[in-house]
Amino acid sequence: MTPNEANRADLGKDPARVSGMFDQVAKGYDRTNTAMTVGNDALWRAATTRAVAPKPGEKILDLGAGTASSSASLARSGAEVVAADFSPGMLAEGQRRHGGMRNLSFVQADATDLPFADGEFDAVTMSYALRNVNDPKKALRELLRVTKPGGRLVINEFSTPPGALFRTAYRFYNSQVLPRVARVAGTNGDAYDYLNESIREWPDQKKLAAWIREAGWTEVQYRNLSFGIVALHRAFKAA
């Protein structure tokens, strides 16, 4: 593959291909997200930050942090935040934008084999990233491992709108409109073809909640945002 050739991941979710795809879209990633979500990405990020409820002195892992927009939002609380991602291109863009925050650090990491100690974090979170991991159940177990007893998990992920009419309209938007928006925004449109496929094949809210419980988390709950386009899952590690 040449440096300028679009890298398109598929549902096999080979880590090298997924990472390479995100490397290529890093510079325009936030701009494209805002365009394709009609600005809802900022509202979803604010909801995630409130759900994590970061406090000064806490240590928080933002896994799949991408360009670290969510990490910066968490770090503004005064908590020590680690922005981790397996895409060096995304991390580089995050450092360019937010590297001046003293309580925000950046680590390249594989979600299924985290380079952190047991019980290192007060809270762990992932936004729109668990879906891109080739073994999401293992990632949920790894997140549990690195969380302190009594610590909390927040997963914000694309999901399944429960209303049939809205769900049909949403799927049409994802398959027909979203890749065109990405291309107009100057990003790798093929990456957003993959995005639509990965959303379509991703389990619904109840199934993801079951996976979180199976991984060992307790008090698992979720709530829908924007009519279920995304769902915010929350859980705790037993004390």
UniProtKB/TrEMBL annotation:
MF-aspect GO terms: demethylmenaquinone methyltransferase activity
Pathway: Quinol/quinone metabolism; menaquinone biosynthesis; menaquinol from 1,4-dihydroxy-2-naphthoate: step 2/2
Reactions catalysed, as given in the entry: a 2-demethylmenaquinol + S-adenosyl-L-methionine = a menaquinol + S-adenosyl-L-homocysteine + H(+)
Residues noted as binding S-adenosyl-L-methionine in the record, renumbered to the chain: T67, D85, D110, A111, S127
Keywords, in A-Z order: Menaquinone biosynthesis, Methyltransferase, S-adenosyl-L-methionine, Transferase
Reported function: Methyltransferase required for the conversion of demethylmenaquinol (DMKH2) to menaquinol (MKH2).
Family: Belongs to the class I-like SAM-binding methyltransferase superfamily. MenG/UbiE family.
Name of the protein: Demethylmenaquinone methyltransferase
